[in-house]
């Protein structure tokens, strides 16, 4: 087993591959399916979006997470995520992505960069925390502390 700072690099590479696959799934589908969630997320996942975002808050449980992600997808006629950077630290994967799309009603173009910290447990996502910058002030900064 190869380690970096005491972490299993093979497991970190697997986690990065899982996150890359989940981002690809997001871009290829118009809706969030329960089956897809079951394959990629733990039974009681959570997502956190920071204050100031249109859909901010903490969402716990598979149904709440599916509902929240579906609301995000429904706002856009077409949308996709583009991976900018990815790095791992133990059971966490930090990704910098751009959300690209076009508004469903307005037609407005979207190009929103953000960071996402995914915590993985036994090959499935347990939590995702979204943040507008890599090292935000306040509570969200704890999510990225391992990546400094």
- The run of helices and strands is EEHHEEHEEEEH
Q: Name the beta content range.
A: 35-45%
The helical percent reads: 25-40%
CATH class division: Alpha Beta
Separation of the first and last Cα atoms: 24 Å
Described by the principal axes of the CA atoms, the overall outline is globular
Largest sheet: 6 strands, mixed
Task: Using the CA coordinates, give the radius of gyration.
Answer: 15 Å
Number of domains: 1
| Parts with pLDDT < 50 across at least 5 consecutive residues | none
Structure explained in plain terms:
The chain is of the alpha+beta class. The protein has one domain: Roll (Nuclear Transport Factor 2, Chain: A). Helices cover about 30% and strands about 45% of the residues. The protein is built from four helices and eight strands, in the order E-E-H-H-E-E-H-E-E-E-E-H. The protein has helices spanning about 10-30, 35-40, 60-75, 140-145; strands spanning about 5, 5-10, 40-50, 55-60, 75-90, 90-105, 110-120, 125-130. The strands form two sheets. The protein has a six-stranded mixed beta sheet with strand order 4-3-8-7-6-5. Strand 3 and strand 4 form a beta hairpin. The radius of gyration is 15 Å and the shape is globular. The model has no long low-confidence stretch (mean pLDDT about 80).
Please describe the topology of this protein.
Layout: E1 3-4, E2 7-8, H1 9-28, H2 34-40, E3 41-49, E4 57-60, H3 62-74, E5 76-89, E6 92-103, E7 109-121, E8 124-131, H4 141-144
């Amino acid at each position: 087993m190869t380690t970096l700072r005491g972490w299993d690099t093979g497991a970190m590479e697997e986690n990065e591959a899982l996150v890359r696959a989940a981002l690809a799934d997001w871009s290829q589908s118009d809706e969030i399916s329960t089956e897809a969630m079951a394959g990629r997320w733990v039974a009681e996942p959570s997502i956190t979006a920071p204050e100031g975002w249109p859909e901010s808050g903490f969402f716990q449980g598979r149904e709440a997470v599916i509902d929240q992600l579906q609301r995000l997808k429904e706002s856009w006629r077409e949308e996709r995520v583009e991976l900018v950077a990815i790095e791992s630290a133990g059971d966490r994967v930090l990704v910098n992505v751009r959300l690209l799309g076009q508004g469903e009603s307005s037609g407005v173009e979207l190009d929103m960069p953000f960071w996402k910290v995914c915590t993985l447990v036994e090959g499935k996502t347990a939590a995702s925390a979204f943040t507008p910058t890599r090292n935000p002030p306040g509570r969200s900064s704890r999510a990225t502390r391992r990546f400094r």
